[in-house]
Design goal:
EC number: 2.3.2.27
Strand content: under 5%
CATH class of one domain: Mainly Alpha
CATH architecture of one domain: Alpha Horseshoe
Oligomer: single chain
CATH superfamily of one domain: Ankyrin repeat-containing domain
Number of helices: 22
CATH topology of one domain: Serine Threonine Protein Phosphatase 5, Tetratricopeptide repeat
Strand order of the largest sheet: 1-4-2-3
Order of helices and strands: HHHHHHHHHHHHHHHHEHHEEHEHHH
Structural class: mainly alpha
Number of strands: 4
Protein name: RING-type E3 ubiquitin transferase
Largest sheet: 4 strands, mixed
Keywords: ANK repeat, Coiled coil, Metal-binding, Repeat, Transferase, Ubl conjugation pathway, Zinc, Zinc-finger
Organism: Quercus lobata
Shape: globular
Distance between the termini: 69 Å
Helix content: 40-55%
Pfam families: Ank, Ank_2, RING_XB3-XBAT31
Bound molecules: zinc ion
């Protein structure tokens, strides 16, 4: 097979080459002469012209082929669809065009039983991943299969897209998948059998950022894989020292994206991004302590500290959060309109890691008026100079000066302190940072 290079094969070769190189006119001319070539495939891999266009990002040719009613889900030798190849190579415009043409997102290749979502996650193309997920939300897949089931779809070895993204060091994809409902503790074993979790695979891959994302989402450092190992041991085995330090069960627990936030019906995207950033920054403060004195010390994130100081010195006192007096108010509670900083908002919503056995969570309440927080939005900057607007008794400039003169790198300690401080909010003005820090130690251990 493949030896007899007939005239037809030559035309085929010419067509495939022209598709690959994006020679639109040539492709059109060849197809005018010999329309049947549309259904020919390469000899070995059995790629169709559509596969080749998709893999090479030749959107114009891909569109033309689809317009000539080539089926979007034509398969090659390994049962890969053009959509899988486009997702593999990060050809976002081709991914979108194929989805528009009704490409089936629920096809499995015969290599590892993977879908287009696995491909996007494995190769780290977050734009393709998002396009496929949004198609899944609006397509019949959501209705027939269930969207979350699709997000957690397994390949032939039990790996979900989250497993693959974690293994291949793709923190952006890890983030998107978690946000869309990927199960952080999914085991490749499935059905209750032991297997690797995404955290095991991130430990193996050695990506600190993936590990941070997974831990912030509540990944369990003590879950064991089929060989009985916790992720910490996997990281050690593969000599990822900094990862191992974070995964060490005796290291301080990171803050976890608070599940009460899920009770807030409308978490505005911008507000959410601010809160996520605050969470990650707080965790990085913790990491400094975990990694301090080890050979794995991270370079100090000087730019974020400097940025904070700058922004503080620029804003008027009105905008300082009146819980911590350190950060700018960026989050507004609705409907009451009270404002606080992202870190305080998070701390307010942060409980210890959610216990799956006690799913009795209540929505968080506003620390100022105790009304249930219905929504969180990004606070609008106040332009008027209504200095003591809702700051009340805490507004003496002397107090604020003293707060401002404190070392801003303490941010995370006041952050953690809020959960204990909220109860005694009225006394906040007189607290000493030393006492709060001591309380935090205690809170941590519970
Ligand atoms: Zn604050
Ligand atoms: Zn309020």
């Amino acid at each position: 097979m493949g030896q007899g290079l007939s005239c037809g094969t030559n035309h085929e070769q010419g067509l495939f080459r022209a598709v690959q190189l994006g020679e639109f006119e040539t492709v059109e001319a060849v197809l005018e002469r010999e329309p049947a070539l549309l259904h020919h495939t390469t000899v070995y891999d059995r790629h169709s012209a559509l596969h080749i266009a998709a893999a090479n990002g030749q959107i114009k040719i891909l569109s033309m082929l689809l317009d000539r009613s080539v089926r979007p889900d034509v398969l090659n030798r390994q049962k890969q669809t053009p959509l899988m190849l486009a997702a593999m190579h990060g050809k976002i415009s081709c991914v979108k065009r194929l989805l528009e043409a009704g490409a089936n997102i629920l096809m499995f290749d015969s290599l590892h039983g993977r879908t287009c979502l696995h491909y996007a996650a494995y190769y780290g193309h977050d734009d393709c991943l998002e396009a496929i997920l949004s198609a899944a939300q609006s397509s019949t897949v959501a209705a027939s299969w269930g969207f979350v089931r699709f997000v957690n779809i397994r390949d032939g070895r039990g790996a979900t897209p989250l497993h693959l993204a974690a293994r291949q060091r793709r923190p952006e994809c890890v983030h998107i998948l978690l946000d869309k409902g990927a199960l952080v503790c999914a085991s490749t074993g499935g059905y209750g059998f032991p297997g690797s979790t995404p955290l095991h695979l991130a430990a193996r891959g050695g990506s600190l950022d993936c590990i941070r994302e997974l831990l912030a989402w509540g990944a369990d450092r003590l879950q064991r894989d089929a060989s009985g190992r916790i992720p910490y041991m996997v990281a050690l085995k593969h000599k990822h020292g900094a990862c191992a330090a974070l995964l060490n069960p005796s290291s301080a627990e990171p803050l976890v994206w608070p599940s009460p936030l899920k009770f807030i019906s409308e978490l505005n995207q911008e507000a959410k991004a601010l809160l996520e950033q605050a969470l990650m920054e707080a965790n990085k403060e913790r990491e400094k302590n975990i990694l301090k004195g080890t050979v794995y010390s991270l370079p100090s994130p000087s730019n974020s500290d400097v940025g904070l100081e700058d922004s503080i010195s620029e804003v008027s006192d009105t905008e300082l959060c009146c819980i911590c007096f350190e950060q700018v108010c960026t989050i507004e509670v609705q409907d009451c309109g009270h404002q606080m900083c992202a870190q305080c908002t998070l701390a307010l919503c942060c409980h210890n890691k959610p216990n799956p056995n006690t799913a009795c969570l209540t929505p968080p309440v506003c620390p100022f008026c105790r009304s249930t927080i219905g929504r969180l939005a990004v606070a609008k900057m106040k332009n008027y100079d209504d200095t003591d607007h809702d700051i009340g008794d805490f507004s003496s400039s002397k107090l604020r000066k003293s707060r401002k003169s404190r070392n801003f790198s303490e941010g995370s300690s006041s952050f953690k302190g809020l959960s204990s401080a909220v109860g005694t909010f009225g006394k906040m003005g007189g607290r000493s940072s030393g006492r709060i820090a001591a309380e935090n130690e205690w809170v941590d251990k519970t």
